[in-house]
Recover the amino acids of this structure.
């Protein structure tokens, strides 16, 4: 997402839209339409400097968004609401946000010779670092910084509204998208099962 999300007619966009809702957590981390294990995504968020609870919340959101599928985590697709836009990466950045993401990844060596995001754990960590950068530096996400980033012990459930409305900006309050909230809870449950809760903040 990282923008207003709604169904469109582009099949690739619809595939991305449905991925989070339908996808069951996979076991592979590379190739085709395989998916990244929740443990790998969680570790990427932790390596980017997010706390235990923050990492759980963010990975649940990425799972809701695209099912942790490689082709969306590292790929691109047309925006369902605005087909003239192309979405990139873990939270479907587009417009100026996508431009900033790709410039950041290129500077760090995480784009291949064709300008595509490399399918590596390091590139995924870099995407989470870019999320953190946006939260820290963009005034548009001041509410996310205050309520989420500056609160390492935030309950992942309590994080969902601020991430949904202010940071990722998907149609959080639209009843037509209520199933996405259930998908997020499913992924949060998967994370909590796969990764023991450590009961302390990451410093």
């Amino acid at each position: 997402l990282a923008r207003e999300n709604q169904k469109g007619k582009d099949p690739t966009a619809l595939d991305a839209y449905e991925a989070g809702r339908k996808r069951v957590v996979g076991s592979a981390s590379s190739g085709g339409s395989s998916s990244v294990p929740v443990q790998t995504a969680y570790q990427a968020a932790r390596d980017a400097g997010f706390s235990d609870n923050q990492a759980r919340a963010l990975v649940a959101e990425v799972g809701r968004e695209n099912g942790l599928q490689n082709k969306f985590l590292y790929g691109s697709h047309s925006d369902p609401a605005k087909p003239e836009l192309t979405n990139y990466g873990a939270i479907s950045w587009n417009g100026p946000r996508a431009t900033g993401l790709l410039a950041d990844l290129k500077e760090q060596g995480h784009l291949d010779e064709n300008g595509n995001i490399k399918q590596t754990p390091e590139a995924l960590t870099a995407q989470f670092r870019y999320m953190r950068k946006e939260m820290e530096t963009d005034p548009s996400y001041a509410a996310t910084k205050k309520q989420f980033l500056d609160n390492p012990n935030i309950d992942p459930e309590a994080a969902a509204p601020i991430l949904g409305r202010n940071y990722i900006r998907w149609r959080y309050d639209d009843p037509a998208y209520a199933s996405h909230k259930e998908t997020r809870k499913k992924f949060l449950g998967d994370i909590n099962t796969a990764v023991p809760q450590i009961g302390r903040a990451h410093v």
Summary: The two ends are 29 Å apart (CA to CA). The chain has a mean pLDDT of 85.
